Amino acid sequence: MNPLVLVILDGAADKGKKTPLSTAKKPNLDFLASHAYCGLWNGAKAPKSYNPRSMSDVATLEILGYSYKDNPGRGFLEALGAGLKPKKNAIYIRGNFATVDKSLRIVDRRAGREELGLHNLSRALWMKIDDIDIKCYRSIGHRCVVVLEGKGLSVDVTDSDIKREKPAKIKPTSKRGEKTASILNEFSERAYKILSKSPINKKRDIPANYILLRGAGKMKKIKSLKKKFNFDACSVSGHVIIKGISKYLGIANINVKGANACLNTNLSGKVYAVLEALKKYNFVLLHINGCDKAGHDRNFELKKEFIEKIDKIVFSKLREIEKVNIIVTSDHRTPVSTGEHEFGPVPLLIYSSEKNITNDIKKFDEINCKKGFRTDNIIGTALKILK
């Protein structure tokens, strides 16, 4: 089988009669759609207790042929992606630097996405609570990873990053989680006091005075993508969660200067890295995150314009590759109407440069792809189609 490029357009899928994907001018992506098998991926599955604000962990794992049962927790994957060396008995939690007012009402759950001083603010939160050592590491953007080390810890806790109005109190979901929940609540209170008094926040446009926590995780062993599908795989991404998932599954990470998981990410550098990687690897994961950010900001035009930019810079090059297979999908919906992650079906295309495929679907979007097939298993379906 020819090499496979899997493109995940993070949060690109939307909902409604008119979406950024359906209105964007994207001749190259639409060309691929008109010469591909098109349909809908039914979307990720997760337990009822799962917090959809994490989403990309279970969704990306499922796209790659795994399930939510294989998920070690968002915090652990973020730690891997941030370059931390995993420790067997440590607990890892994903954090957001956020802004709250004096009543702890959430003003901005991403602290304006301003990055000034976040490394030093993270270091200021290293502390000990009872017999537990706590360290905070800045990862990328407004994100951080909080690491707990000590005895009696558990991932059986809820998140504080759930509600729009105020941070939620972290609760144990089992007897094992009682100590961890208590420690995390104490950490949140202390962190708020430390951050609120920090002189760094006087220099920022909007203070980063709170840490919203979610996705407690710990080390877990899993079968690699190589052993599962015999792929020699690499990933090209600026997003810490994709880097973490790649390390978790034994996928090589290719770093691209200026690839930052933002709307100004280096798309040209990323597509060049893909073209070079195809000389060595038979599976390349290309992850592009900007649509998700525009969706969170509830900005229809910005999301549409970024899709057009991806088409012009990325898909114009991918469609020219000879002897290649291409999968394009979204990991989840981030509708501009809500600004939140949502479960549900998303568009999917499976393209082969060597198969003469024609169909009635001429555009890659939520509306047109409904006319095609539906699947729960992207990799399995693709391997059947492309063999």
Question: What are the SSEs and their pairings?
Answer:
Layout lengths: L3 E6 L10 H4 L3 H8 L1 E6 L14 H8 L10 H8 L9 E10 L5 E3 L9 H6 L3 E3 L2 E7 L4 E7 L28 H20 L2 H4 L6 E8 L7 H5 L3 E4 L3 H9 L3 E3 L12 H11 L5 E6 L1 H7 L3 H19 L6 E5 L16 E7 L20 E3 L2 H9 L1
Parallel strand pairs: 1-11, 1-12, 2-14, 9-10, 9-11
Antiparallel strand pairs: 2-13, 3-4, 3-7, 3-8, 5-6, 6-7, 12-13
3D architecture notes:
30% of the residues lie in helices and 20% in strands. It has 387 residues and is α/β, with parallel strands linked by helices. The chain folds into 2 domains: 4-72 and 222-386, Alkaline Phosphatase, subunit A (3-Layer(aba) Sandwich), CATH 3.40.720.10; 80-217, no CATH class. The strands form 2 sheets. Strands 10-9-11-1-12-13-2-14 form an 8-stranded mixed β-sheet, with helices on both faces. The termini are close together. The model has no long low-confidence stretch (mean pLDDT 95).
